[in-house]
Amino acid sequence: MVKKDLQSLIRLRKWEVDEKQRGLAVLLRKEEAIIERQVALEEEIRREVAHTSEVPAEQQFTFAAYLERCGGYREELEDTLNEVRRLGEVAQEELSEAFRQLKPIEETQKLRDVEGEKQESRQEQEDLDEVGLNLHRRRKQRIL
């Protein structure tokens, strides 16, 4: 019965580890998406700069506003990226803690399993010894 209770606890801890892994994976995907948006923004700015050089000076008045908007968006992306990375560090620590909680329980279960196998083996040997002793007694009785 204790063995089964420990298995339930192991399943619960493994589920917690899985949940932490999934949460970390979500944050890593968000980080990747933000970086992709940053790269796309920089490429867009380069294209616009190249295009603006071809436009007459009197039509370039909106370019400064565009660059200002892009600067704000760039800052937003950087702030968001920093926050996602901070959350990722926290999630990684939580995942590590979940693993630290799981491992001793699994090791205890392994020890219990080994001890249970040893006990079963001892019981089998005792049973075989008893059978052998009984056979020996019967032979001895037949001889007498």
Tell me what the structure shows.
By secondary structure, the protein is mostly helical. The protein has a single domain (2-143), classed as Orthogonal Bundle (Helix Hairpins), CATH 1.10.287.1700. The chain has helices at residues 2-52, 61-143. It is rod-shaped and about 130 Å long. The two termini are 48 Å apart. The relative contact order is 0.11. The model has no long low-confidence stretch (mean pLDDT 89).
Concise account of the structure shown:
With 144 residues, this protein is mainly alpha-helical.
Strands, helices and their partners?
Blueprint: H1 2-52, H2 61-143
Helix pairs in contact: 1-2
Question: How many structural domains in the coordinates?
Answer: 1
Percent of residues in helices: over 70%
Which term fits the overall shape? rod-shaped
Largest sheet, in brief, is: none
What's the CATH first level? Mainly Alpha
The H-and-E topology, N to C, reads as: HH
Quaternary arrangement of the chains shown?
single chain
Portion in strands: under 5%
Note the total helix count: 2
Annotation keywords:
144 residues; mainly alpha; Helix Hairpins; 2 helices; rod-shaped
